[in-house]
């Protein structure tokens, strides 16, 4: 039995469709912020693998709530890693491009230097470090710009804004790979299965949608496919200040995922799929 942390999040929801026999623990079953004895809970559940799709994901709010974010993004994953080590089972954990500073224009490789710009990235990096130090069989899957028909994400924000706006200014100097949550869920399942058979595949991997694009061009494609007539004006990040600094270069080098037979997903197809699920037609 696979144990999934997260229940109603973007990736967790997609995992539900793929793993009908798995056990899903959301906040109600295990509130990671209040530090329940999740190590003991995991051992009692006796899963044969863990996928951690739970996280504190509010990037800007994390600047004011770093201790809480640290609890959910690092302390809890450390306990998952300790339990996985005791049970001898694989742990698949999702992480983020925000562990990098976004310098340059080259895609970041999994072994590249980490230097988070904000609290969210710092806490996610601490989670990665704990898992890598403790879990014998793990895969840390760094992804970026997640979207789906569920929860809050950029695609759904754009659709909402298109109901009332004909013109939007959108950041064009942050470039990365929008990633469908469904593709991340598929990758997690495949990786968890492979880790059970081949622990030599333990390590950090990158997985983001292709091709790399700016937020502004991502928005243009959303509006094109949804048949919304919204004009998009490029603006620099400096014209859209946010509490947390974000990396300008979120490109991830995903080539090592070929070890699992995985390619980068096509985010344009992901938009089409998501719009269909939302019942949006052009
Ligand atoms: P969501 O914000 O959609 O969902 C967060 C999940 O975390 C939910 O399932 C939620 O539980 C769970 N969670 C949050 N707080 C707690 C808590 N206190 N106790 C227990 N569970 C909690 O996240 P995504 O699906 O978008 O993200 C999945 C992963 O991808 C995360 O590791 C994230 O860091 C990473 N990521 C996300 C990006 C994005 O753009 N969203 C970009 C890059 C990486 P419940 O089901 O009960 O609500």
Summarize the structure.
This protein is an alpha/beta fold and about 280 residues long. It has helices at about 10-20, 40-45, 65-85, 120-135, 155-160, 180-195, 215-225, 265-280, and strands spanning about 1-5, 25, 50, 90-95, 140-145, 145, 165-170, 175, 180, 205, 215, 230-235. It has a single domain, classed as NAD(P)-binding Rossmann-like Domain (Rossmann fold, 3-Layer(aba) Sandwich).
List the helices and strands and how they pair.
Elements lengths: L1 E4 L4 H9 L4 E3 L12 H8 L3 E4 L13 H22 L3 E6 L22 H16 L3 E6 L2 E2 L6 H9 L4 E5 L3 E2 L2 E2 H17 L5 E4 L6 E2 H12 L4 E5 L31 H12 L4
Parallel strand pairs: 1-2, 1-3, 3-4, 4-5, 5-10, 6-9, 7-12
Antiparallel strand pairs: 8-11
Helix pairs in contact: 1-6, 2-3, 3-4, 5-7, 7-8
The structure holds NADPH dihydro-nicotinamide-adenine-dinucleotide phosphate (NDP).
Describe this structure in words.
The chain is of the alpha/beta class and 282 residues long. The protein has one domain (2-153, 177-211, 250-265): NAD(P)-binding Rossmann-like Domain (Rossmann fold), CATH 3.40.50. It contains 8 helices and 12 strands. It has helices at residues 10-18, 38-45, 66-87, 119-134, 154-162, 181-197, 215-226, 267-278, and strands at 2-5, 23-25, 49-52, 91-96, 138-143, 146-147, 167-171, 175-176, 179-180, 203-206, 213-214, 231-235. It has a 6-stranded parallel sheet, sandwiched between helices. Strands 6-9 form a two-stranded parallel sheet. Strand 3 (49-52), helix 3 (66-87) and strand 4 (91-96) form a beta-alpha-beta unit. Helix 1 crosses helix 6 (181-197). The termini are far apart. 45% of the residues are buried. The chain binds NADPH dihydro-nicotinamide-adenine-dinucleotide phosphate. Residues 6-12, 26-27, 30-33, 53-57, 72, 94, 96, 124, 143-146, 151, 181 line the site of NADPH dihydro-nicotinamide-adenine-dinucleotide phosphate (NDP).
């Amino acid at each position: 039995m696979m144990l999934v942390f997260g229940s109603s999040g973007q990736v967790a929801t997609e995992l539900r469709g793929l793993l009908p026999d798995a056990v899903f623990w959301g906040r109600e079953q295990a509130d990671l912020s209040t530090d329940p004895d999740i190590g003991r809970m995991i051992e009692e559940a006796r899963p044969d693998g863990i996928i951690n799709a739970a996280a504190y994901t509010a990037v800007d709010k994390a600047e004011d709530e770093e201790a809480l974010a640290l609890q959910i993004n690092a302390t809890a994953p450390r306990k998952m890693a300790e339990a996985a080590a005791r049970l001898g089972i694989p742990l698949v954990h999702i992480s983020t491009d925000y562990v990098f500073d976004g310098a340059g224009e080259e895609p970041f490789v999994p072994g590249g230097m980490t230097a988070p710009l904000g609290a969210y990235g710092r806490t996610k990096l601490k989670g990665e470090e704990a898992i890598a130090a403790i879990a014998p069989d793990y895969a840390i899957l760094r992804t970026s710009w997640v979207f789906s028909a569920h929860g809050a994400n950029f695609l759904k924000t754009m659709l909402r804004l298109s109901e009332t706006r004909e013109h939007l200014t959108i950041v064009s100097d942050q470039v990365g790979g929008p990633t469908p949550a469904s593709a991340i869920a598929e990758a997690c399942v495949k990786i968890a299965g492979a880790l059970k058979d081949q622990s030599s595949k333990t390590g950090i991997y990158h997985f983001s949608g292709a091709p790399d694009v700016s937020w502004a061009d991502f928005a243009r494609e959303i509006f094109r496919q949804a048949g919304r007539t919204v004009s998009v004006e490029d603006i620099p990040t400096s014209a859209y200040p946010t509490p947390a600094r974000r990396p300008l270069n979120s490109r991830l080098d995903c080539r090592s995922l070929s070890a699992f037979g995985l390619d980068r997903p096509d985010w344009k197809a992901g938009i089409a799929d998501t719009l269909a699920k939302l019942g949006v037609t052009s």
